[in-house]
Specification:
The protein is of the alpha/beta class. 30% of the residues lie in helices and 25% in strands. It is built from 13 helices and 21 strands. A hairpin with a 5-residue loop joins strand 20 (403-409) and strand 21. The termini are far apart. Its EC number is 1.8.1.4. Its cofactor is FAD. It catalyses: N(6)-[(R)-dihydrolipoyl]-L-lysyl-[protein] + NAD(+) = N(6)-[(R)-lipoyl]-L-lysyl-[protein] + NADH + H(+).
């Protein structure tokens, strides 16, 4: 086999494997290098997202939500169940089975599309050469006309709470608890912390979330954040903002955490397990030779332009190692864009229309600008809001928490942002993303026919509410 490729992708996560498949579909001779080994030391594609991120966490979120529903909510529907129990081992085994199905599926897709897969570590050398080190230590050098760096990210460590065995863990460890911890601490009230905290809370843990920032979900529209805080508190999640962890000490089978509270006073809390979820950082360690020529910015991200080109011609970088949100779907779309560019097609990605989701229950989802951003930018805007409590379909489902909020330009009526908290928010946000991608106005959505009864009617009503025309709630008088 020739060691020369049109495209070599370093990294087989949602950015890398999608880029490789797309490039091969476009007739390019493509290879993908992935270093991931699972807990049994078997090579796996899919990166963090499929192996220890998006997919396994959703499996546990769904399992724990179904358990909670059966235990706490079924009686509302007249369904009586005695002695509901959760087999944690069966839940974890199911999660692992789903992961194996999907990672194996990527291998099948590589084969179907003619992508050459290499299991081991890839390193970019000068002149677009790639050094490949297999898991057995053997080394080969490949040549490529184009290289796509898609090496992803790793959890951030904090000195006050270093990961230690199975008591202080990151997201990977938290997906593999084989029993429900009685007392669970979570450092960080971001996406990962809230999702994993809610999984184990539903299963019976006493959960305390310590967030260093003074504002809960500061990147969210604060309407959404306040509603989420209220709902999570009702669910029993103890979220403490302004809590700066200063130390931790393992004492037998538990850990004592020391932190400064919002008043600056020292507090101590003891947990059986502690999840550190304070964010992620780009992974480039050992991936770039000193003479590769690729520039990193001051935060360790690979410097790229709007089309993911690095400063080295023919070398691209995508996903978590470049600017923008660390989201699997953003990485995938960048992979498609870059493959199209390499194949000679015109391609551009709209970074203003990337949705974000937190998969708690209710879910939080948003796209575009929020109120704080628009006010800071001095943009005149209108707000339309509709609560799920007024949705017939949400009532029928006994899932009425939250609302849909649409922000539109005062002058042009163009939709500037959409923010949803509620059941199915992750799916509903796609309607707003599509509308914004086509430059829709709030009136465009208001004039669209939505099926009844559906939860998506809340999007319709929120669009109507932008100009005070909602049908199924009393409209606020516009000033």
């Amino acid at each position: 086999m020739s060691n020369k490729f049109d495209v070599i992708v370093i990294g087989g996560g949602p950015g890398g494997y999608v880029a490789a498949i797309r490039a091969a579909q476009l007739g390019l001779k493509t290879a993908c290098i992935e270093k991931w080994l699972d807990k049994d030391n078997n090579p796996k594609l899919g990166g963090t997202c499929l192996n220890v991120g998006c997919i396994p966490s959703k499996a546990l979120l769904d399992s724990s939500h179904k358990y909670h529903d059966a235990k706490e909510e079924f009686s509302v529907h007249g369904i009586g169940i005695d002695g509901v129990s959760m087999d944690v081992n069966a839940m974890i085994d199911r999660k692992d089975k789903i992961v194996n199905q999907l990672t194996g599926g990527i291998a099948g897709l590589f084969k179907a599309n003619g992508v050459t897969s290499f299991e081991g570590f890839g390193k970019l050398l000068s002149n677009k050469k790639v050094e490949f080190t297999a898991h057995d230590g053997s080394v080969e050098t490949f040549e490529a006309d184009n290289v796509i760096l898609a090496t992803g990210s790793v959890p951030v460590n904090i000195p006050p709470a270093p990961r230690t065995g199975d008591i202080i863990v990151d997201n990977e460890g938290a997906l593999d608890f084989r029993e429900v911890p009685k007392r669970l601490g979570v450092i960080g009230a971001g996406v990962i912390g809230l999702e994993l905290g809610s999984v184990w809370k539903r299963l019976g843990s006493e959960v305390v979330v310590l967030e260093a920032q003074d504002q809960f979900l500061s990147l969210c529209d604060q309407d959404l954040a306040k509603e989420a805080a209220k709902i999570f508190k009702k669910q029993g999640l103890d979220i403490r903002v302004g809590a700066r962890v200063t130390g931790s000490e393992i004492k037998g089978e538990e850990v004592e955490v020391t932190y400064l509270d919002a008043k600056g006073e020292e507090q101590k809390q003891t947990f059986d397990k502690l999840i550190v979820a304070v964010g992620r950082k780009p992974f480039t360690d050992g991936c770039l030779a000193a003479d590769s020529g690729v520039n990193l910015d001051e935060r360790g991200f690979v410097f790229v332009d709007e089309q993911c080109r690095t400063n080295v011609p023919g070398v691209f970088a995508i996903g978590d190692i470049v600017r923008g949100p660390m989201l699997a779907h953003k990485a995938s779309e960048e992979g498609v864009m870059v493959a199209d560019i390499i194949a000679g097609h015109k391609a551009q990605m709209n970074y203003d229309c990337i949705p974000s989701v937190i998969y708690t229950h209710p879910e939080l989802a948003w796209v575009g600008k929020n109120e704080q951003q628009l006010k800071a930018e001095g943009v005149n805007f209108k707000v339309g809001k509709f609560p799920f409590a007024a949705s017939g379909r949400a009532m029928a489902a006994n899932d009425t928490d939250g609302f849909v909020k649409i922000l539109a330009c005062e002058e042009t009526d163009r939709i500037l942002g959409c923010h949803i908290i509620g059941g199915h928010a992750a799916d509903l946000i796609a309607q707003a993303v599509i509308a914004m991608e086509f430059g829709s106005t709030a009136e465009d959505i208001a004039l669209t026919v939505f099926a009844h009864p559906t939860v998506s009617e809340a999007v319709h009503e929120a669009a109507l509410a932008v100009d005070g025309h909602a049908i199924h709630i009393a409209n606020r008088k516009r000033k």
